[in-house]
Specification:
Order of helices and strands: HEHEHHEHEEHEHEHHHH
Strand content: 5-15%
Bound molecules: S-adenosyl-L-homocysteine
Strand order of the largest sheet: 3-2-1-6-4-7-5
Distance between the termini: 74 Å
Structural class: alpha/beta
Helix content: 40-55%
């Protein structure tokens, strides 16, 4: 029998993490561990679980002990997705967010070449009752909806995890993955993108871009635009430079007006 704790870990599963946000039922954590283990994955990350640790985790994991051994409880959502090039938010409902919405197969068609090119990807699953909240949605670059029926669309959390893990498994069992994206340098990670957005939004305030109007819609659109562009770290450095100069000019202008 194979010794589970020393099982060979192929490179692709290593690059894909399943992030469960604010899980209320510990049995679902165990069932999710089992779901990913059956499909060859092992990276399970928890953010603010409501009950953990809990005997129901082990009970529902049904022997997926190596997944539980590697399980990470992240201190924050940002920490949970650190080093990820792309974060996919799983949601049963169509959300009023301006993000591309994919079914699992289309999402995997995007994920496979990213992973083949050595990038890391997170799949983010929401709370059992309320789904993903606004903070969680704001770190996603795309939404994935399992096309369930309209009038009963919500799957059990671990079953939604299973569907994604299955689709990824099918892609891994398939032939050669699609060719890597046409990029010289690695796309920036999610945390680098967040730092850039902080700088961008602060600068827009400094130059009084919003002129008293609410910033949130513009900020969402800009997030979408820059995520679509998938800038690399060097491109982000250029953009930070532009923003720093804009901030400097705003300060000079303020000083001239005697502010
Ligand atoms: N009422 C919640 C349901 C939460 S179910 C909602 O509308 O989102 C718990 C989690 O399972 C969800 O946050 C989502 O990550 C995942 N999930 C359940 N059904 C799904 C579906 N049809 N498509 C994609 N994700 C789904």
């Amino acid at each position: 029998m194979m010794n589970q704790s020393t099982a060979f870990i192929p490179p692709a599963p290593q690059s894909i993490r399943f992030v469960l946000a604010r899980t209320s039922h510990p049995g679902n954590i165990g069932a999710a561990a089992r779901a990913i283990r059956t499909m060859g994955f092992w990276r399970l990350v928890l953010v603010a679980p409501q009950r953990y640790p809990d005997p129901q985790v082990e009970a529902m994991a049904a022997g997926a002990d190596d997944v539980l051994t590697h399980l990470v409880q992240a201190a924050s959502l940002t920490e949970a997705i650190t080093s990820c090039t792309r974060v996919y938010g799983l949601s049963a409902r169509r959300r009023g967010v301006n993000l591309p919405e994919l079914d699992p197969r289309a999402a995997v068609a995007e994920i496979a070449p990213l992973v083949a090119a050595g990038r890391e990807v997170a799949l983010l699953f929401g709370n059992e009752r309320s789904g993903l909240d606004n903070d969680e949605l704001s770190v996603c670059q795309a939404m994935v909806r399992i096309p369930s029926v309209e009038d009963f669309s919500s799957l059990n959390l671990a079953q939604a995890v299973q569907v994604m893990a299955w689709e990824l498994r099918m892609a891994m069992l398939g032939e050669v993955p699609p060719s890597p994206p046409d990029h010289d340098a690695s796309p920036a990670t999610a945390d680098e993108m967040e730092r850039f957005f902080e700088h961008l939004f602060a600068t827009l305030h400094a130059i009084d871009f919003h002129k008293g109007r609410a910033a949130v819609t513009i900020e969402q659109r800009l997030r979408r635009l820059f995520h679509r562009a998938m800038p690399d770290a060097r491109e982000l450095r250029i953009l930070h430079g532009v923003l720093a100069d804009a901030e400097r000019m705003a300060q000079l202008a303020g000083a001239k007006r005697g502010e």
